[in-house]
Design a protein that fits this description.
The chain has about 200 residues and is mostly helical. The protein has one domain. About 75% of the residues lie in helices and about 0% in strands. The longest helix has 28 residues. The chain is globular and about 60 Å long. This is LysE family translocator. It holds the Pfam family LysE.
Length: about 200
């Protein structure tokens, strides 16, 4: 991969990462409730899942994605149901906006990572995106492990930058919510966003 193609790849993945979808909706909801710092493991889980899809695409696993469509459908439905559950929980649970979002223990960090991984993994069209996307920037017939590692690193930096930028902007919006009524609206708004992400996934074909 040349420097020019690497830069183009980085920018394209960044744009792909901030495009509205289940992952972005989940980041918005988490940042509104707990702040940007609480989104790091969630974003990392999404990014690692995307990287796995990227590597799978690089190694030509499109055939598996096609032949195992039933499995991907199950993953998508499970992920969508989980998002709906999180949305319901956010809608009914009280919010404590005095939390800074900085105190994230290992358990919540692991849960955030798992949630992010599931959200991204439940969208098998990501691998199809990369399959169509990669030939634009690299010669797949001459692809070696170094190229794949570089593409994975660029994807990690680009996606994390985009998702955390969204989280930062969303977390600052929390400052607008001070009254009890506003907190209730924030709670239901965040829950609606999360549930919307679940509906988005479950209705995709």
């Amino acid at each position: 991969m040349t420097l020019e193609s690497a830069l183009s790849f980085f920018i394209a993945v960044f744009i792909f990462g901030i495009t509205p979808g289940p992952g972005v909706f989940a980041i918005l909801a988490r940042a509104l409730v707990n702040g940007s710092a609480a989104c790091f493991m969630l974003a990392l889980g999404m990014t690692i899942s995307d990287i796995l899809y990227l590597v799978a695409a690089c190694y030509g696993l499109a055939v598996i994605a096609t032949n195992w469509s039933e499995l991907f459908t199950v993953i998508r439905i499970v992920g969508a149901c989980y998002l709906l559950y999180l949305g319901w929980k956010m809608w009914h649970a009280p919010l404590d906006l005095t939390q800074t979002g900085q105190e994230v223990n290992s358990s919540s960090g692991f849960m955030g990572f798992s949630q992010g991984f599931l959200i991204s993994a439940s969208n098998p069209k990501v691998i199809l995106f990369y399959i169509a996307f990669l030939p634009t920037f690299m010669d797949l017939t001459a692809l070696d492990n170094i190229d794949i590692a570089l593409a994975a690193l660029l994807t990690l930096i680009s996606l994390m930058s985009g998702l955390m930028l969204i989280a930062l902007f969303a977390s600052r919006a929390r400052r607008w919510f001070k009254s009890e009524r506003a907190v209730k609206r924030l709670n239901r708004g965040a829950g609606s966003i999360m549930a919307g992400a679940g509906l988005f996934l479950i209705t995709r074909h």
